[in-house]
Every structure is written in structure tokens, then in C-alpha cells.
Amino acid sequence: MAKTLTQKILEGHLVAGAYEPGSEIGIRIDQTLTQDATGTMASLQFEAMGVDRVKTDRSVSFIDHNTVQIGFENADDHRYLQGVAARYGVYLSRAGNGICHQVHLERFGRPGTTLLGSDSHTPTGGGIGQISIGAGGLDVALAMAGESFYLTCPNVICINLTGRLQPWVSAKDVILKVLEIFGTKGNVGCVFEYGGPGVRTLTVPERATIANMGAECGVTTSLFPSDDETRKFLRAQGREGDWEKLAADTDAPYAKVVTIDLSELVPLAATPHSPGNIATVKELEGLEVHQVCVGSCTNSSYRDLMVVAKTLKGKKVHPGVSFILAPGSRQVVDMLARNGALADLIETGVRLEENACGFCIGNSQSPQTDAVSLRTSNRNFLARSGTKSANVYLVSPETAAAAVITGRITDPRDLGIPYPEVAMPDVFIIDDSMMVPPSDDPGGVEIFRGPNIGAPPTSDPLPGAVAGVVTIKVGDNITTDHIIPAGAKMKYRSNIPAYSEFLFEVVDPEFYNRARGVRDSGRDNIIVGGLSYGQGSSREHAALCPMYMGVKTVIARSFERIHTANLINFGIVPLTFKNKDDYDSIQQGDSLEIPNIREKIGAGEPLIVRNTTRGNEFEVEYDLSERAREIVLAGGVLSLIRDKKRRRGIDE
Ligand code: MIC
Ligand code: SF4
Fold this sequence. Notes:
Aconitase, domain 3
């Protein structure tokens, strides 16, 4: 029977379940990546598992998010990560080496293998034909310990590309078109598999841009075939030996096929405050721009920065614009430095950031009040830039460069200059000296632990009944940036009591005090959410901090994939309304009771919620595999592991 490429790779890695879309499967993970903001907690969790050495083919710990280092906390975390990496067999990409997804693609990504990363943009690796999935840190720590990764066997959607991109239109416009078609919700459990004659016309970094931002649609991952273009890229990275030809079978069965004619695409933008709000650049033309930021794991490759450098050569930054550049990797900036493009950019008036996430996560370069900021990154959620009143538009490097010159949103096709074609280099500059290999003497490694690092909190088993208060009721499309902000607050990622104080800060600054009051009075905190609750990042702190505050359940109209897994991993029960209108009957502050929740979930029986404030009741549903039920009943994965260890100790 003909197979999709997704099926071929997943089947080759199957360790539990059968390849039937919609059912739970367990897969073997070949490679993992973590980044410092999620990796510090993941490393603490890995240490708590008591495993001596990672069991993967390759695990890499990247330091790329918290590189601003105001205060000692980030630097302490970096040193801790370096020790853990040396001790347990992990490669460490030092601060300054670049953004995890860009560097992993350059140096480690391998067609036909599986990669699990504690970052939602891990699917960037799909650009090279690798099944690359974002997950919470705890799931990645488990994979590092040799455990399978569990996911819903996906429905594979084919995005059939035809034609060829026109000048000034690029990969970002392709994925913005995909976002226009599919939106940011309703795609849970799907994979986008790209195919068709248009694929050949796209380089690996362009494919990676498209795969990267599939995360904004909420799909499990995005995947490109591995072809001659992939081979060329790997050869230029000195890794041709990692190449393997991979493609779907002709007539592979797809859940759906959507065709995009690349020749018809025009420059697009995602308007505030969602990557799913798509407009053409022409529609926005003329809007005054205050800041332009080029970089992030979506658009910071050699190709992207060369397009910007060539467009801006000999020009000056418009006086009303602050122009920021954060290169994706040390390799990229080295290439630009040696071919003169960096000098051209400096002459233009660029403000250079470190090779890191930089502006993208809002811990630097927050724009002015009410600013219009054009960014080549992937998320424009409210307040993510660090300035709540700012309006962030997501655009291609071409459209970003045009605004640097004109100071206004400008269709780059109207610049009146020839389109700068950028050829992919035959050879990239390869210098892995900022990639520290694991120690030859792991027993001799001393791991540094600064005062900001605490043990990962665990929770008690799920109680017999939940009796609590709706501490917050939120609407649709609540992202993890709403639940727990990143930016400057990220330095508390390894200090859960301190980080928890920022829960829901963007939506309701009083949440923390209310939740603390409820918890301290011995009652449970309950969160009520709308559609697509938990969009965006993989940050498990959006579940871990609520767990710490005594949240026992989130009742929502629907959930996104990674966040659901994180809630389960930390013993919080994700429940959905059976009748979607019941959402409207609840108000913040209502008292809810779920009698016999433990018994009912254990038996897989329906659950009734009593609203004792309003005097009504309603049914809720849960979609938990047997494995997930066991985790939730134990109070989370770490509690389950602890219980199992204890039981083994008693048996022995
Ligand atoms: C993001 O882009 O939102 C982040 C910061 O990279 C997150 C991870 C994190 O919160 O540390 C992600 O995408 O998973
Ligand atoms: Fe870093 Fe931004 Fe990419 Fe997240 S989206 S990994 S913060 S560059």
C-alpha cells in the first residue's frame, strides 16, 4: 500500500501501538534538543530520573534564549547546563553559537530520523526531512532517558506546491498563506507534508522557514521530502554522509490535499495579535513603522540575511526606524562577515544583537509605546515583544528590508530595484568550537548549582473529588505567553515559586493573589478556557506553575497539543465541555465540585461538574489514554516515577 513520508518514518520508529490515525502511538526518539529556558528544568527532571547517561543517538543542549544576563540567574543556569551536558553525554551549544533550530539544522539534523525538542519550533527540522516534534521539557527528559515519546498518530495533510516564487516573495509568504488557509486552531493531531513540483524550487533554509511556522497552526509537525536540494545543503555543511533520499509514495493516501501555486503568492503579513491574522502587504501599505527586527529561528539563515544585506547595500536606515538584526547562528554571521555583507549592514545603520533568540522572546528590544514593529519572527501575541501597546506585524525579510528604507510598510516589489538573488554557498564555514562535546570523564564532572535553582516540584495524587473555585475564566486563543510570560521573567524558569507570581500577568495581574488565597484556604484552583487553550510555546511552566498554585483542572472548549501533554505530565486534568454552551453558564469566582473525579477517571466514566454557585450541573469530557490516566491519577509523571521506584523498593 502506498504510504506518506510521515507514515514511513513513524512506522520505522514505532514502539507502541499501531499506525492508525487518531490512536496513541509510542515512537523511538533518535535525537533531542533542549534550550536553556526549558532545558534547565528538563535537566533537573532528567537528573531526578536517576539515569546515568542519555540513551539517544544525539542530544544537544542549546543556550540561546536567556542570553541577556541581567542578574546572576541566567549565567548560573548556563553553567549548570554545561555541567549536566558534560556529565550525562550531551553536546552543549554555548551562548553565542546561535538559535537551537538554526544550528541543529546546520550541524545535526538528519533525514529520516526523529528529533524531539523542548521548544515548539523544533519542526524546523522538517525542512531537512526529519520528523521533528516540539514537546514539554519533561517529555524530552524522558526521551533522553530512553523512554518512548507518545503522540496521537497523525492525520497527514498534503500541501502540494506548484509553480515558483516570484521576485520579492519568499518562504515566509508561503507559510503565511498556509496560516491564512488553516488558521491557528483546529489542526491538532495533523501533520503538514509538503510535496509537488514546487518543492524542488525551494532551498533547505526556505523549507525550514515553512516547517518552523507550521507550529503556529498547531500541527504536530511539518515535513519536506529529502531530495537533491537536501543533499546539496548537507554537502555544503560537510555532512553528505547523513543524506538519504526520502519521499512519499506516488498516490500516498492523504487526509486532505491543498494546492498552493507559488507563482501566485504575493508579500503577506500577519497583523496584530495573532500569526493567523493575514493581510497582503499592499493592504497595509503606508503605515508608519518604528522598529524593524530581522532574525529568529524562522528567518535568520544565510539566505535571509543576504537578501536583507543586498537590498540595503548603499542605503541608510530611515530616521524613524530602529533596525535590529539577530543572526541565527555563528556560522551565518561568520559567512556575512567574510563576504562583506556584514559591513554593508553596519554601514546601513543596523543595531546588531547576539546570535540568539534576542528580540523574538521579548527580553530585549521592546519597542516604544504604541509602536508599529515589523518582525521576521513567528509570533506576534499581545505583549510578547515586552510592550503591551505595541503592534507587531510578522513579515518576510524582503518586506522588513523595504520598511528599513522607507519607514513605512511597503510592498518590496515597489522598491524599484532589482531583486537580489542569493545563491546557496557550495561550502559553509564550519567551526564547531562553540559546541562542547560531553566529558571523557563523566564521573569527574562537578555540576554547578546556583541559588536560583530549585528541585522540580512534584504534586500529590489526584484527590477523590475536586472542590474549588474558578479563579480565572478566559476567552478563545489563550496562548502560553498569556498564561506565563517569557521575556525578562524567563530568568525564573528554574525557580517555580518566583516564576509563578507572573501567572496570567498579561490578562489579569490579580490572578496570582487570588490563586494563592484559594490554595491557602485548602481549596482547589480551577481555570476555565475557551477554544484552542494553550496555543504557542512548549513551555511546560504554563502547566508546572499552575500545578504549584494548586490548579487541579482546566476546563476548556478545546486545547492545543503540547499544552495538553504538559497539563497531564504535571497532574492537571484537561477537561472539555460536552455541550460547548456550558462555557457561557460559568462565571469567574463560581464554586465548582467534581465528585468522584478520581474513581470516574480511573474507570473511564463520564464526569459531571456541579456549579454550586449557580445551582446547575454539566457534563465534561476527557480524552486520556490508559497511560495518561495513570499519570494524572498519580499527580504527574515525576510522582508516578517516584511511586514506581518506592513500590520497587518495597518489593525488593
Ligand atoms: C517561544 O518562541 O515561545 C519559545 C520561548 O521559544 C518557547 C519555549 C520557551 O518558552 O522557553 C517555545 O516556542 O516553545
Ligand atoms: Fe527563539 Fe523566537 Fe525561535 Fe522561540 S520562536 S526558539 S524565542 S527565535
